[in-house]
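If it is no trouble, might I ask you for a protein's amino acid sequence along with its backbone structure tokens?
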Amino acid sequence: MSTVAARDALEAAYRTDARRVLATLIRLLGGFDAAEEALHEAFAAAALQWPREGVPANPYAWLVSTGRFRSIDRHRRQARLDGALHELAAIEAVIEQGGLDGYALAHAARADMQRRLGRAAAARLSYARALELTRQPAERRFLEARRRALTPLE
């Protein structure tokens, strides 16, 4: 399908279906803000996907499904992030308040949480601290591999 035809179909879907898609998403997601964000994400996805794959047979249904699934994915990502933030805070509290600054595995756990949160520079420092405290060759190899696996320049 040509880009022009896909754009025309997307504009037509916006004119004819956007309000109905929004109303359905409000009902499915339980609120206006979440539904409005899902609506925008669905149209953004359509702008990328429809020129490549063609306009679906039922654009309304496609937009509702895409908006709903994007909303679910966003909530899952946020839940993982929130969980990792709480875990990192707990680990840091144990290290600081529990007098475990000299315990290598506490720093390794901190580094793993920082890595999960995309904080590569902080994770690198925590892995380095864990390596300073570790004397076991197998643990050192494991920690060095984890530190090397961090993407550069983060």
User: Anything to note?
Assistant: The CA atoms of residues 89 and 96 lie 10 Å apart. The chain has a mean pLDDT of 89.
